[in-house]
Here is the input.
Amino acid sequence: GREHWDHSERLLCLCAALLHDLGHGPFSHSFEKVFRLDHEDFTQAIILGDTEVNKVLRRVSADFPKKVAEVIAKTYPNKLVVSLISSQIDADRMDYLLRDAYYTGVSYGNFDMERILRVMRPREDQVV
Here is the structure.
């Protein structure tokens, strides 16, 4: 499956994964309903605006903030990269399921992440 992976996009994936929820307000999606905001739109505005985040991303390249915002908006041309950040088995979902299960003391959400990471493979436009 590695032949499908462009190693030059590694940093892009890492940055998009770390920043994709930057625009989330407190109380997650309830905040969005009350204030009629979309956290992904707000995240993109932070990444593309005159912000410290934008300045740091521009150290990579002038168009790097735009690429990160495109991954978050699901408009980036390489759909494999997008699927790592937003899909049924994306990094965010795996993170919050384990974290929430741990901090709430319930078993719902527990899964073997090590095994999933070991067996998942890039195929065409998605990770399987």
Q: What stands out?
A: The first strand starts at residue 122 and ends at 123. The mean pLDDT is 85. The radius of gyration is 16 Å. Strands lie at 122-123, 126-127.
